[in-house]
Amino acid sequence: MAPIIRHPGNEELWQALRWSLAGLQRRWPLHIHVEGVRGTGKTSLLRAAAAFRPRIRRIKGCLYQCRPEAPHCPEHRHLSPEEIRELGEERVPAPFLEISPSAKLATVVGTLDLRELSRGIPRLLPGTLAQAHRGIVFVDEINRLADIAPEVADALLDVMGTKPGRLQVEEAGFPPVAFPVEVTVWAASNPDEEPGPLSAIRRQLADRFDLHVRVERPREASHVEAILRHRLHRLEKDLGFAPPEGEDLPWPHLEERWLKVLAQIYVEWDLESLRGLDAWLSAARLAAAADGHPKVGGDHILKAAYPALRHRVEEGRLAELAAYLSGPRAAGGGQEEEGADLTFMEPMGKEEGPAALAPDDQPGSPWHRLFSGFRKKPPFPGDATPSPMAGASLGEPSSWPVAPPKEAQSLSRWRGGRWWRPADPR
Fold this sequence. Notes:
Layout: H1 11-25, E1 32-35, H2 42-49, E2 55-59, H3 81-87, E3 89-93, E4 96-99, H4 105-109, E5 110-112, H5 114-117, E6 124-126, H6 128-131, E7 135-140, H7 142-148, H8 150-161, E8 165-169, E9 177-181, E10 183-189, H9 198-201, H10 203-208, E11 211-214, H11 221-238, H12 256-268, H13 274-291, H14 298-309, H15 315-325, H16 328-331, H17 366-376, E12 413-415, E13 418-420
Parallel strand pairs: 1-10, 1-11, 4-7, 7-10
Antiparallel strand pairs: 2-3, 5-6, 8-9, 12-13
Helix pairs in contact: 7-8, 11-12, 11-13, 13-14, 15-17
């Protein structure tokens, strides 16, 4: 489960989710619509909260989540109690399903099973809403869905109009099939982007939500730092690198000061999205891994900064950020005490030794070298300004590394462009 970092910007959503989960346990759906700018963690928080949904009893294998004592689906509602007991029952987590803005009506509402229909048996394939009975449906970018898929929005209106809602499946040449649906709808949208807020696109659908909450960006650097730390931990745990033999390789070590520096940047420079920090840190760590370094260095942070931020930060802000990062406050990760380590970055091309901190407008500053071409003019496609990564190459295939013998694989690690063992004199 993804960690949930509580801060003042998401406290309202946190409370609303607790209430909605309590309603789920009491057969009373409480629908929530969450609005907030991109990168505020709306989707992550909603998906993480779904881990707290209760377990339910259902007829064994029923895709419609039928209660054994009150079956409602087309397959089981005509069976006798004895026949239901023969099928058996099971306890499973309440369903949590998602509907994307590009979803088709048949996948959301349901359709006829063509395989069974070819045998002369008119059988329904349950859609997302039918399978989410007694559970949760999450609709991301619901404002886009209401704009480009009005027929799916109509289905949501039917499901959310009453408690329980009602779902009707219609196919040409067959009588309509209707049944009740108890589903809790969680939805998220960004009102600042096209096509605009949900209330302006489909006011009737916006009114179906019981609660409308706003999510704001975290304003404290400590909260941002905690979010980054948890995300990096999850990345290490879930993804990891694997060499050809399948052995997991460790991620290059990232010092705490980098988390502090980027957390300060997010708050003080009013960056819009946490995704930018995620991308920056991930790219820096992967750059170190690709170079065979066990630790992320300043040069890796530098190389990753430009491509991670150029499409997220305005030109002028990037130049100001470069000047900020060249100062001693950023270098120490916010530490200004006497004797604090103010080393921020090593000069490009140098692997060891402290960097001589220089103002951004001095040629000796690594950030000056990184952003100098960018500050002069925007980096549009075809711009003559060379990229900081210009001339980089993976080399010819003949120079690529070769995996160690199988007897050495368990102790092997990637370092400095080749495989090595702990006993290696290097």
